[in-house]
Amino acid sequence: MTPAIVWFRRDLRLKDNPALCAAARRGGPVIPVFVLDEEGEGRWAPGPASRGWLHHSLRSLDLSLRERGSRLVVARGGSLEALRRIARRTGARAAYWGRRYEPAALAGDRAVEAALAGDGIDARSFGGALLFEPESVANREGGPFRVFTPFWRRCLELPVAAPERLGAKGLAAPAAWPESLDIDALGLLPRKEWDPGLAESWRPGERGAAARLKRFVSRAIESYAADRDRPDLDGTSGLSPWLHFGEIGPRQVWSAVRALSRESGVFPPGNGARAFLGELGWREFAHHLLFHFPDTPESPLRPAFGRFPWGGDPGGRMLGAWQTGRTGYPIVDAGMRQLEHTGWMHNRVRMIVASFLVKHLRLSWTHGAKWFWNTLVDADLANNTLGWQWSAGCGADAAPYFRIFAPVRQGMRFDPAGAYVRRWVPELAKLPGAFIHCPWKAPADALAAAGVSLGRSYPRPIVDHAAARAAALGAFRSLRAGGAA
DNA sequence: TTTTGAGTTGTTCGA
DNA sequence: GTCGAACAACTCAAA
Question: Is A390 designated active site?
Fold first, then answer.
């Protein structure tokens, strides 16, 4: 029996991996392959944080494969060339892989499929990265959805496939392994390591994902509806980087939540679970939108935003202050520094910093999208694009133009004791709770007692909230039909 | 077919 | 202190 190539993409897992299962069922030797194809990513090759995560994930995948008598063959360069080379060396007559949905990856998929088929190879792609394939969800006119709620309602009428299982027997090895690069040779590791405290809870790889899911489902999901908004608590699943790389699949997550309903028979098993599944729904919606509107990573979905009066930023001072967490608004700065140190930011805080960049500083959402792309370990083109366009109000199901987060109010509501700010903005740690979100309002003696020197140890606000809010409302109003300013 | 109501995540103002 | 209204325009689906 001839070998089958399994081309690993965003499905770096052995469980619930339809392409791998199909190759194993075939009965012949299986050749697991990963190709680092930066050209094939178009304008959105993975950024430094994401590459660091990928490095560890590939190591983990290779180890898991070795436990089953197999290994990961690693190549670099054009995907098609690499797959053809390996097929030639090994005599593989089949190549299976998990579908991706980014515009560049989709185009690459089609080209690879056609070319390999032309070589006489059984070339097939499989779903599994999403609960619902983008084509299978359509509105009554047969088109894509642009509003989340009807989209998700429609999805919930469709069946969710159970995770697929790989048989217990090992993966048959080929007579000879083709040559492979060492994972280190891909040069994915960033120069800077993650925050030491966090490196422990970040366990890239399939096992780390399973442990994280198990912990979340048994401990936090019940109170998720309320706690997910609290950056000072550990109330979210934190699964995003693992989901991005497919170290766990959404069907596995779905099935773990479903298992909570076993006794009661009620599904979803509570408000927390319902809210959590809704977040998976947003991930589905993001991919649905990117699939149907492939220009959205660069261009606003709502054309009127082409004439949005963005503010000026001579010397990039404003953008720089935002990126480095020196805006003078503690909740914003805490978020940006958490991102810098850990490669991750709490979702509530992502909304706050995004609103701040777009509405208070009036800098284009594309600046924010690029920064997140390079700094997040969970950087995902679909989710990043939806999130930024949503925040800017130029995307699908857009936030109303008047929804401008007030950084002080948000801080007090969702980080009530200031624990999150104290952790990530340590120069403010000794300020009393009353001023932790607005140090410029603190009396001089309180500042002195806390060792804070405004404008020196911590910046004054780079914009005035009320003035920035008024300017943003005016800018948005200028977009109204007719365009009257 | 047309109309109507609802839609992830907010803030401010005035009663 | 709390509460409701106001702050657009558009998409989608139910009536």
Answer: no
In this structure, what token pair is assigned to residue A340?
């810098």
Say whether the CB atom of A480 is under 7 angstroms from strand C.
Answer: yes
Active site residue A365: yes
Helices (H), A260-400: 271-292, 317-324, 330-342, 347-355, 365-375, 381-392
CA–C1' nearest nucleotide, residue A151: C12
Q: How many CB atoms lie within 10 A of CB A267?
A: 14
Q: What is the CATH number of the domain that holds A366?
A: 1.10.579.10
pLDDT at residue A170, rounded to an integer: 76
CATH number of the domain enclosing A261? 1.25.40.80
Domain CATH for A26: 3.40.50.620
- In terms of pTM, does the model score above 0.85? yes
Q: Which of the residues in chain A have pLDDT under 70?
A: 193-201, 481-485
The predicted structure's pLDDT at residue A287:
97
A415 CA, B14 C1': separation in Å? Answer: 28
Within 7 Å of a protein beta carbon, the nucleotides of strand C are 7-14
One domain, residues A332 and A384: yes
Whether A39 is catalytic is no
Q: Which domain holds residue A248?
A: 130-163+205-292
C13 C1': nearest CA residue: A150
Q: Please tell me the distance from the alpha carbon of residue A213 to that of residue A250, in angstroms, as a whole number.
A: 11
